[in-house]
Amino acid sequence: MATKELVGLLLAGGQGSRLGVLTSSTAKPAVPYGGKFRIIDFPLSNCINSGIDTVGVFTQYEPLELNAHIGIGKPWDLDRNNGGVTILSPYLKSENNDWFTGTANAVYQNIHYIDKVSPEYVVILSGDHIYKMDYAKMLAAHKKNEADATISVFEVPIEEASRFGLMNTDATNRIIEFEEKPANPKSNLASMGVYIFTWEILREYLIRDDHNEASEKDFGKNIIPMMLEENKRMYAYAFEGYWKDVGTIQSYWESNMDLIERVPDFNLFDHNWKIYTTNPVMPAHYIGPNGSVKKSIVAEGCMVYGTVRNSIIFPGVIIEEGAYIEDSIIMSNSVIGKNSKIYKSILAEKVVVGEGVEIGVGEMVVNTIKPDIYNTGINVIAESAYIPDHAILGKNVVIHKCVDASDYATLNIASGGTVFK
Q1: 189 pairs with which residues across the strands?
Q2: Domain 286-419 is classified in which CATH homologous superfamily?
Q3: In which element (H, E) is residue 54 found?
Q4: Contact (CB, 8 A) for 403 and 386
Q5: Contact 332/350 with Cβ under 8 angstroms?
Q6: Which segment of 162-166, 191-195, 354-358, 359-363 scores lowest on mean pLDDT?
Q7: Of the candidates 289, 322, 285, 288, the residue with the CA atom closest to the CA atom of residue 302
Q8: Among 16, 212, 219, 403, which is most buried by a count of CB atoms within 10 Å?
Q9: Which range among 83-92, 173-182, 294-303 has the greatest average pLDDT?
Q10: Nearest one of 316, 321, 375 to 347, comparing CA atoms
Q11: Among the ranges given (39-43, 50-54, 124-128, 179-183), the one the predictor scored with the smallest mean pLDDT
Q12: Which of 414, 336, 332, 338 is nearest to 379 (CA)?
């Protein structure tokens, strides 16, 4: 394989447990987004748009759907003999047969893959953020500063800064201190989890870190602090634009809703920076004689006979006569029955809603099983679940995967309730 100047390393093995039932059987980067995409499409598209044609994708948790989506990388022009995309999962070795135990360990376990490409630099990316970024510009800054590491940062309100890893810099943007979610932040420059390293330097630190039994094998907790302590040349790279960590139900819902604003902060219609994905082979969507759609995204293959307001509708969804959907995300191949009403909800793929159902009504009560995940009034219906005719679901209600009519003790699920399979 020919030597590459910059190789992309995409960390996509996380569960994303804060997305609840949306990631019960699929990795967070494979979660659908924006009417036709999956979350991982954004960093992959950023790579090819930045001129990076060699990308390693580290997978671990529930990788089947993610691997199938990426395939050989054709949608991103990464189906190449020289370079392209490579899925890197934990595998059986002659010794030390471990799962990836941290972000740094995932890269360490695949040093041989990176050495084979022999890049001068590597860009480490998270597979679960929504943003557009030209990594070539970041690399130019890295080289100009003769840096060992460059970390992309963005400004956050100081009152929210304690939720992030923060960089303190000098007048030249050289990083002089890193704080991991400090109680009293000194800076509002938050790490985006996008790093460019000079590979020769990073390789040394990965090996040393692996030999440290006390290490958590993590870039933010171990590699970066160790490099700072040893006075390596580390610089912050200021990012200006839309960036969203869609790691919670609320942030995921908000980011999707951002797309339907009149002038969206994050524009999917930008022809200068396209987001690529696999495309379903479906006809154009159809709006029936009594159908009505306003301020929404409706993907191909949908048939809308009811009313859609302020919502994201994925491919192949059927919305029957008299149905009303508002402030919601309806994923692929779901069916909404006649005269059903859905408010502020997320329905995963292949959900079937019966006739005369009401979802998202009643008082505001956090979910009684997982109040830390479902607490902002959004209902979440998992993949292939069924909601019987005339059922009434309150707010913060969760329906688990493959639930059918026999799993309901009552058709009136109060706010905060959960239905298990």
Answers
A1: 155
A2: Hexapeptide repeat proteins (2.160.10.10)
A3: strand 54-58
A4: yes
A5: yes
A6: 162-166
A7: 285
A8: 219
A9: 294-303
A10: 316
A11: 179-183
A12: 414
Q: Is 350 left (phi over 0), alpha (psi -120 to 50) or beta?
A: left
The model's pTM is 0.94
User: For residue 1, what pLDDT band results from cuts at 50, 70 and 90?
Assistant: low
Parallel, antiparallel, or unpaired for β 149-155 and 189-198?
antiparallel
- What residues form DSSP beta bridges with 126? 11
Fill in the DSSP letter of residue 248. S
- Residues 6+ away with beta carbon under 8 Å from 256: 33, 34, 312, 329
pLDDT digits (tens, 9 = 90+) for 8-62: 999 998 888 999 999 999 999 999 999 999 999 999 999 999 999 999 999 999 9
Round to whole Å and give the CA distance between 133 and 137: 9
- Would you state the structure tokens that stand for residue 175, as one six-digit string? 């990083």
Start and end residues for every CATH 3.90.550.10 domain found in the chain: 4-260
φ/ψ of 18, rounded to 5, equals -75, -10
Reported as a pLDDT band with limits 50, 70 and 90, residue 329 is: very high
Helix (H, G, I), strand (E, B) or coil at 270: coil
Backbone angles phi, psi at 68, to 5 degrees: -65, -40
Regarding the domain with residue range 4-260, which homologous superfamily does it belong to in the CATH classification? Spore Coat Polysaccharide Biosynthesis Protein SpsA; Chain A (3.90.550.10)
Residue with tokens 């370079």: 83
pLDDT tens for each residue of 340-371: 999 999 999 999 999 999 999 999 999 999 99
Within 8 A by CB and 6+ apart from 229, the residues are: none
Task: Write out the H or E segment, with its range, that includes residue 345.
Answer: strand 345-347
